[in-house]
């Protein structure tokens, strides 16, 4: 006997397609002002939160467009076929109209901060559309473009807060993002619901993805450690920056366990569902904040 799915209203269907759980990645917008120790300054906080709202709006728009373009492929996927557009519950016309409104609203919100943030947001939109419309079928470039999306979030926070971006920050943000992106791809490969190639995505081998996320994790930890020792040597004090290396390394290793077991297909679920990982993140955040706040 087939199971009857409960009917949902249009607003609920649009919200489901916007995937709010995945907005967690937008918290990277806070990284630059946090590193600069200026996040809680009134004007900086207001501008940074405005940038965060703009990215949440534009990410919702991007997911709606993605679901419109991928609807046919999603119907062949055991998990994705339940998405509102693929299931036929949400009209592509409605989704496209709302996506356009959300994108316009995001750009309008970003203008409250300044044209520089709007330029960063527009670059993200162009990259996201390029990925959806073809780059996701190009080996290596697909990984690079998704990784660039994370870096643009960090850049947006820096622009909004007028915070400096050091080479170490960019290095850690870039390779940390690549680590998570490759881990997600690895989960898709080792626990495939269908052939990735049939969904219009690159069919990587597990060995290649293990190489990528192993390399990315190594560069992330090494780059962070070099930054921490440099900051510690320059500022002296209690050595909070050096101490923060330990929880960050343990968090990367903890997440790598999930990657290795093919459970990192939804990074937000891994992070929110692992209490030990959350604990390590909070310890790292406290030490990082104290290191950044030392003058």
Give a structural overview.
The chain has helices spanning 10-18, 31-36, 42-69, 71-74, 92-111, 115-133, 141-161, 167-190, 206-235, 240-243, 245-260, 267-273, 275-293. It is mainly α. The chain folds into two domains: 9-165, UbiA prenyltransferase (Tetracycline Repressor, domain 2), CATH 1.10.357; 166-295. The radius of gyration is 20 Å and the shape is globular.
Which properties best describe this structure?
Tetracycline Repressor, domain 2, mainly alpha, 2 domains, 13 helices
Brief description of this entry?
The protein has 295 residues and is mainly α.
What is the multimeric organization of the chains shown?
A: single chain
What overall form do the CA principal axes indicate? globular
SSE order: HHHHHHHHHHHHH
* Helical stretch tally: 13
Major sheet size, sense and barrel closure: none
Number of strands: 0
- In round numbers, the mean pLDDT is 87
Please tell me the CATH architecture of the largest domain by its name: Orthogonal Bundle
Bin the helical content: over 70%
Instruction: Find the structural class using helix and strand composition.
Output: mainly alpha
Number of domains: 2
CATH class of the largest domain: Mainly Alpha
End-to-end C-alpha gap: 67 Å
CATH topology of the largest domain: Tetracycline Repressor, domain 2
- Which band does the percent of strand residues land in? under 5%
Q: Give the uncertain stretches in residue-range form.
A: none
Cα gyration radius (Å): 20 Å
CATH superfamily of the largest domain: UbiA prenyltransferase
